């Protein structure tokens, strides 16, 4: 039994019947949600000391009679509710009971939770290596085959096509795909030859119409980044794991499919990073996201800030699943740390998120973030080399997608000259460029 507080949970209110396609296994469900609000819970001083548990319950419900709150009854019939004095504003929630042989520890290896400024996050180490005991869950699951997919999105520019090719390669190379599809959402900005190459890389292509961000300026980077909402329209899948195209995958992410929406890595404060997310597609959720475009204010002007407002309750994943690439103050310590990460047979990191200028947009010789003062915080030669080592593994027939345009080379050269003028102490601007792409440009 519980109170629905629209201020205390996510903005999206979608029933499971709206969320899932019709099932033949007889699942029973009746959910009726309304966007009513509960201003505050009943104060402790409303219940006098020495009262019985039954009297406390009746006192609690009596305090609700004068308000407009709706009371949710989980597996409690309306006849039973009348016995304890509730006869109005009732929402019945019915579902099949959990089998007696299913234990709580079968669902979650780590039971501890922590409060983080109003957001409840699971223990950061929960299920990181996919070690949670889910064998009993699998044995009790419906015989219906679950459909799952990895997904990413490219829109408004073809600058991230190379990243998508690398992502497909890494997902396959780490054994992440299995029977799962690789789905890439794209708009008309991607040319036919590049779409054909993406399909050859392993992506199932889905054309989409972009979704405009009403608060973005015309031509800004975030003008159409609400297009990511289209991921929730992939309703032929029960669950998808979204991965940004600027993330290098080093280890399998398959265990994420066991986790609920939204599971993601902590970004800052109580917020999650939208670079890797577990999503449960739903037309209801998609419609809610689109409907709130005008009244929800994104803290960073983009999809990440918006989604954090919409999904206040999220499940925290360890940083090593989506490790942010940042500069180190001590290059020696960085090299030693990177050696531990990559020298081992099994890397410690599952994914590296390349902030700033992406590796394929730089010369291979060094991380070009060093040449731009505002981006130097994202510079790391070790991570840069790690990406290019994986590049050498991809099919030679796809490497042209990572080429440099003449315009991009002009920009890189201008930034090197600026760095030289400013005499940056790292002196990357002195490095002799040997990258062959400097001399063979692409359109």
Automatic annotation (TrEMBL):
EC number: 2.4.1.-
Keywords, comma-separated and alphabetical: Cell wall biogenesis/degradation, Glycosyltransferase, Manganese, Membrane, Metal-binding, Transferase, Transmembrane, Transmembrane helix
InterPro entries to which the protein is assigned, alphabetical: Glyco_trans_8, GNT1/Glycosyltrans_8, Nucleotide-diphossugar_trans
Biological processes per GO annotation: cell wall organization
Gene Ontology terms, MF aspect: glycosyltransferase activity; metal ion binding
GO cellular component terms listed in the entry, alphabetical order: Golgi membrane
Keyword Metal-binding: yes
Main location: Golgi
Topology with respect to the bilayer: Single-pass type II membrane protein
EC supergroup of this enzyme: transferase
UniProt-listed PANTHER family: GLYCOGENIN SUBFAMILY MEMBER (PTHR11183)
The family this protein is said to belong to: Belongs to the glycosyltransferase 8 family. Glycogenin subfamily.
Protein's UniProt name: Hexosyltransferase
């Amino acid at each position: 039994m519980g109170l629905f507080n629209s201020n205390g949970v996510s903005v999206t209110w979608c029933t499971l019947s709206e969320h899932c396609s019709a099932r033949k296994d007889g699942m029973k469900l009746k959910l009726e949600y309304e966007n009513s609000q509960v201003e505050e819970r009943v104060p402790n001083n409303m219940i006098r000391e020495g009262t019985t548990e039954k009297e406390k319950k009746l006192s609690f419900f009596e305090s609700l009679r004068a308000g407009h709150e709706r009371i949710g009854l989980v597996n409690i019939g309306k006849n039973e509710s009348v016995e304890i004095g509730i006869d109005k504003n009732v929402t019945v929630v019915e579902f099949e009971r959990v089998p007696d042989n299913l234990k709580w520890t079968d669902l979650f290896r780590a039971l501890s939770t922590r409060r983080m400024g109003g957001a409840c996050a699971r223990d950061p180490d929960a299920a990181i290596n996919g070690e949670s005991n889910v064998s009993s869950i699998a044995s009790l699951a419906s015989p219906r085959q679950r459909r799952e997919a990895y997904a990413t999105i490219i829109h408004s520019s073809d600058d991230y096509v190379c990243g998508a090719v690398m992502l497909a390669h890494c997902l396959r190379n780490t054994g992440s795909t299995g029977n799962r599809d690789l789905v890439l959402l794209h708009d008309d900005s991607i040319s036919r030859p590049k779409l054909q190459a993406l399909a050859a890389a392993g992506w199932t292509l889905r054309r989409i119409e972009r979704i405009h961000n009403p608060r973005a300026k015309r031509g800004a980077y975030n003008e159409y980044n609400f297009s990511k909402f289209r991921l929730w329209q992939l309703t032929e899948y029960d669950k998808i794991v979204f991965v940004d195209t600027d993330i290098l995958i080093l280890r399998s992410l398959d265990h994420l499919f066991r986790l609920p929406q939204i599971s993601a890595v902590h970004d800052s404060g109580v917020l999650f990073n939208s670079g890797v997310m577990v999503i449960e597609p739903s037309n209801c959720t998609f419609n809610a996201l689109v409907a709130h475009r005008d009244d929800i204010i994104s803290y960073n002007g983009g999809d990440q800030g918006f989604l954090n407002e919409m999904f206040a309750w999220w499940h925290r994943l360890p940083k090593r699943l989506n490790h942010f690439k940042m500069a180190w103050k001590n290059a020696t310590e960085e090299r030693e740390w990177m050696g531990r990460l990559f020298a081992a047979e099994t890397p410690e990191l599952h994914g590296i998120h390349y902030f700033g200028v992406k590796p394929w947009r730089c010369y291979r010789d060094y991380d070009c973030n060093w040449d731009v003062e505002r981006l130097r915080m994202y510079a790391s030669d070790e991570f840069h080399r790690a990406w290019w080592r994986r590049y050498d593994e991809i099919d030679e027939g796809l490497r042209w997608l990572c080429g440099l345009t003449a315009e991009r080379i002009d920009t890189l050269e201008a930034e090197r000259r600026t760095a030289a003028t400013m005499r940056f102490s790292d002196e990357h601007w002195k490095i002799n460029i040997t990258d062959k792409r400097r001399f063979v440009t692409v359109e």
